[in-house]
């Protein structure tokens, strides 16, 4: 099984590096169009999606694939890759250097491995989350191959918490720390895994926004709190995940949930 996980990591590293190198050439130059949900898409998104799905088909021909741009139906395969070919398209199209490529590997509907490569920052996050899968596998979360862990700091007004663009109503509330908004769902939550922020909220992430980071942030010690009662995983075979959102709070330690949960729950009720 060790050889299998080495293959998975090598594939994620080499494939996202290759796709990321091409995206860097298009960065800030791609023309964006608006999708039906109001988000932006570029030809670079579509090219990257096709390139990633093609690489998966060649290396893991028996695995399913669910991707942002094409495949939204969760397949019956035990193993499935979930692909976000370009997380942070608006940043990418407007020339802001925070965007990335996300690959999540699911076993029987639940993520067990995640890899997120951010080409402009030269950062690659990955992590292994066994959960209840029963698999023999590595453990831990990493940034550029170095182990990472969430912060154990006590909350102060000089610590950071990340909002998404659909959570700005929180700014009207007295907030216990400084707010940041990065414009990239994966990176928003990965900064918690790296210990840079104490928490983050995503009001409307899709399954491709969270599949990879689910494994990474929990492997780093973070507490993941869904803001709806329906469990996120395991995903259901045959279900269309194109329009489903998964509002989520992630904090660096369980003790912070009572502080931030009432604030973000109030936002979800609006």
User: Biggest sheet: strands, sense, closure?
Assistant: 7 strands, mixed
What is the beta-strand fraction?
15-25%
Label the CATH architecture of the largest domain.
Answer: 2-Layer Sandwich
Number of helices: 6
Identify the CATH class of the largest domain: Alpha Beta
Tally of strands: 14
Describe what this molecule looks like in 3D.
The chain has 2 domains: 2-147, Fructose-1,6-Bisphosphatase, subunit A, domain 1 (Fructose-1,6-Bisphosphatase, Chain A, domain 1); 160-268, D-Maltodextrin-Binding Protein, domain 2 (3-Layer(aba) Sandwich), CATH 3.40.190.80. Helix 1 runs antiparallel to helix 2 and helix 4 (185-193) packs parallel to helix 5. The protein has helices at residues 2-26, 43-59, 89-94, 185-193, 207-219, 257-268; strands at residues 32-34, 40-42, 64-67, 79-87, 100-107, 110-118, 123-128, 140-143, 146-147, 160-162, 178-180, 199-202, 223-226, 248-251. The strands form 3 sheets. Strands 3-4-5-6-7-8-9 form a 7-stranded mixed beta sheet, sandwiched between helices. A 5-stranded mixed beta sheet has the order 11-10-12-14-13, with helices on both faces. It contains 6 helices and 14 strands. It is 30% helix and 24% strand. It is globular, with a radius of gyration of 17 Å. It is α+β, with helices and mostly antiparallel strands and 270 residues long.
């Amino acid at each position: 099984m060790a050889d299998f996980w080495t293959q998975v990591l090598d594939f994620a590293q080499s494939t996202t590096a290759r796709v990321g190198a091409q995206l860097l050439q298009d960065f800030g130059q791609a023309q964006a169009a608006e999708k039906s949900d109001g988000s932006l898409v570029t030809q670079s998104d579509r090219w990257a999606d096709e390139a990633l799905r093609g690489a998966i088909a060649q290396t893991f021909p028996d695995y399913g694939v669910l991707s942002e741009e094409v495949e939204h139906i969760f397949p019956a395969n035990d193993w499935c890759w979930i692909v976000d070919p370009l997380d942070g398209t608006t940043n990418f199209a407007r020339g802001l250097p925070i965007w990335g490529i996300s690959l999540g590997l699911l076993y029987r509907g639940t993520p067990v491995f995640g890899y997120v490569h951010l080409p402009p920052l030269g950062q690659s996050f990955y992590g292994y989350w066994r959960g209840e899968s029963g698999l023999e596998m590595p453990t831990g979360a990493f940034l550029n191959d170095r182990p990472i862990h969430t912060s154990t700091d006590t909350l102060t007004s000089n610590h950071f918490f990340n909002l998404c663009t659909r959570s700005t109503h929180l700014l009207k509330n007295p907030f216990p720390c400084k707010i940041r908004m990065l414009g990239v769902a994966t990176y928003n939550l990965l900064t918690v895994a790296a210990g840079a922020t104490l928490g983050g909220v995503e009001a409307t992430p899709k399954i491709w926004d969270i599949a990879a980071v689910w494994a990474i942030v929990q492997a780093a010690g973070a507490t993941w709190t869904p803001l709806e009662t329906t469990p996120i995983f395991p995903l259901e075979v045959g279900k269309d995940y194109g329009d489903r959102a998964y509002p989520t709070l992630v904090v660096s330690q369980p003790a912070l949930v009572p502080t931030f949960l009432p604030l973000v729950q109030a936002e979800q009720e609006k």
